[in-house]
Structure formats: structure tokens, C-alpha cells
Amino acid sequence: MTQIKNIGVYTSGGDSPGMNAAIRAVVRTAIYYGLDVTGIRRGYDGMIKGDLFPMDRQSVSNIIQRGGTILKTARSEQFKTVEGRKQAFENLKAHKVDALVAIGGDGTFTGAKIFGQEYDMPIVGLPGTIDNDLCGTDFTIGYDTAINTVIQAVDKIRDTAESHDRLFIVEVMGRDSGLIALRTGIAAGAEAILIPESKTDLQAVFEKLERGRKDKKSKIIMLAENGEAGDAFEIGRQIKEKFPNYDTRISILGHIQRGGSPSCMDRVLASRVGVAAVEGLMAGHRNEMVGLIHNEIAFTPFDNAIKRNIDINPDFLKIVDILAT
Ligand code: F6P
């Protein structure tokens, strides 16, 4: 095993709160062990364009509490091409980068997996996405902050919903995953939660609304984006058709969910996996994501980490049924 001397670090895909804490952990751990660190701006795009720079302790000062990513991020089409990846490798070589820490979600790890194999480059990934849609970690960096942002917003929506006796459909992010909607729906006391992982029976939702307490006219339906039943406007249209007496409003929370100062949970998670990533690379780990399973550091091959169809705990949906009556 050749000894690693210079670790390149980048963030890629959608940003998430806590990515800065992860960058800080990687940089400081590498320096602690006497390694050089190279920052790569805008993920794979920056790698291809040669936007690389040396990082030191100072370059990650005062960032642990900041949302976004100081390294910036992008989704790169060019990296999907053989030529793009070749150029990226040339640039890494020119900067003497001999290992990488990739911070991002499944798109990031898909690219890392191909690149690591093509160029025999040791790469360890950190789970950075608000969606929590990776296997091999109980939580991803940014998820906790995002769900707290959501419930704060929904608490506010509930105030006005209650005053006006309105039904709100609140659409949250998650790409193809309902994990944000599921947890926040419970925490915000939603009457129904619609997620892509469970077949949406709108009729059952309607019946539930009908059966619901007659004295409580304000209602919250938590909806994950990209569900088969349609977006918030489509569901709102159907509710209007079925219950013209409901005063219905739609609220799409959007990118507010991706910003803000990371929660304590996210900062600690990012710090733990950041340290483990550098130590893992030094110990010979490659093509793996480092996460926390049952509060213990765990390495999972990229292939398994990005496996789709994360199981939803059926108890969560049952809880909503019981509690929202
Ligand atoms: O993967 C993170 C995420 O915020 C998803 O929840 C969402 O579907 C997507 O990114 C939005 O991406 P963009 O910022 O490119 O519109």
C-alpha cells in the first residue's frame, strides 16, 4: 500500500448544512497527521477545470457553524464522460493529489466509484445530503438541520391555518425519498403524510379527512416531492374537487430546507465522519462511504451506499394514523 501524502477534498451535488463542518474535519485531521490537503472548488467541475488550491488550518476557521459549502458545489455533466474524468485526473496529478474525500450524495458517489476504479484513486465519501437517502448511515449530514427547518416552518403555517380554518398541503424536498416528509409529518402533527415509498391512496386520505374531528378544521398534509399522486397543486386540485368546503392552501418549502446554520447533530456527525474518512484513507479504505450506524463509525462500499429503495419504517406511518385522529 502506497502512503498517502496529499488529500483532495470536494463537495458535490446539492449542498447541505454541515458540509463546512465536514470540510473542516477533513482538513484539520489531515494536517494533524502531517498530510497536505488540497481544496477542489465546485466538485467535479472544478476538478476538470483545475480549480484546486492548498488548504491549511486557517482556511477552515470559523466555518463549523456556517451553512452551504465554502468549496462551492455543482452537478457535473462533463465528469460523466471519459474525457472529463481524464482531464480531472491530470489536474489532480499536477497538484500531487493522491487520495480524495468526496462529500455529497448518490450522484457524487456514483462519479467517485467510476473514477476510483478507472484511475486506481483511493476515495472515501462522506454522506452530505438533506435527503437522508443513503444506505450505510443512519443519518446524512444536513438531514437533521433540514427537518428542523421544516418543522419550524410548519409550526408557523399551522398558526395561520388554525386562524383561518384552512387545510394546507406542505410540499417538502427529498428527490425520490419521503424521509424528510415522514419524520417532519410526525413532528409537526400532520393529518396525513404522502411519500413515494408507500402507495398513495388518495381516496383513503379523503376518507380520513372526512372522518376527522369536525371541530378541528385546520389540517396539514405533508407531501414529499415527486410522488406518484402528483405535486401539491395536483393534490390541492383534487381536494378542492372533493371538498369544495375546505379552504385549501399550498406551501412549497423549497430551498429554504437546504440552508441555515447546521444543528449540533449535523456538526457532530460531520466532525466524526470527517475524522474517520482521513483515518480510513490512511488505513487503506477506498471506494467506501463512511457513516454512522447505531452511533458507530461504519464503512460501506459506494455500491451499497447508493442502493435505492431505502426501507421505510412502517411504524412511522402507523404512528401518524394513530396520532392524527
Ligand atoms: O438532493 C438534494 C435536493 O435538495 C433534493 O431534495 C431536491 O430534489 C434537489 O436537491 C433539488 O436540486 P436543485 O437545487 O438542483 O434544484
Give an overview in words:
With 325 residues, the protein is an alpha/beta fold. The longest helix has 22 residues. It folds into two domains: 181 residues, Rossmann fold; 116 residues, Rossmann fold (3-Layer(aba) Sandwich), CATH 3.40.50.
List the helices and strands and how they pair.
Layout: E1 6-11, H1 19-32, E2 36-40, H2 43-49, E3 52-55, H3 82-94, E4 99-104, H4 106-119, E5 123-127, H5 143-164, E6 166-172, H6 179-187, E7 192-194, H7 202-211, E8 219-224, H8 232-242, E9 247-252, H9 264-282, E10 288-293, E11 296-301, H10 302-305, H11 314-323
Parallel strand pairs: 1-2, 1-4, 4-5, 5-10, 6-8, 6-9, 7-8
Antiparallel strand pairs: 2-3, 10-11
Helix pairs in contact: 1-9, 2-3, 5-6, 6-11
Based on the model shown, name its key terms.
binds 6-O-phosphono-beta-D-fructofuranose, 11 helices, Rossmann fold, four-stranded parallel sheet, elongated
Measured distance between first and last alpha carbons: 60 Å
Number of strands: 11
Helix content: 40-55%
Q: Could you list the spans in which at least 5 consecutive residues all have pLDDT below 50?
A: none
Spatial shape: elongated
CATH architectural category of the largest domain: 3-Layer(aba) Sandwich
Radius of gyration: 22 Å
Overall pLDDT confidence? 95
| CATH class identity of the largest domain | Alpha Beta
Tally of individual helices: 11
Task: Label the structural class.
Answer: alpha/beta
**Strands of the biggest beta sheet: in what spatial order?**
3-2-1-4-5-10-11
Question: In what range is the share of β-strand residues?
Answer: 15-25%
Bound molecules: 6-O-phosphono-beta-D-fructofuranose
Largest sheet data? 7 strands, mixed
| Secondary-structure element order, N to C | EHEHEHEHEHEHEHEHEHEEHH
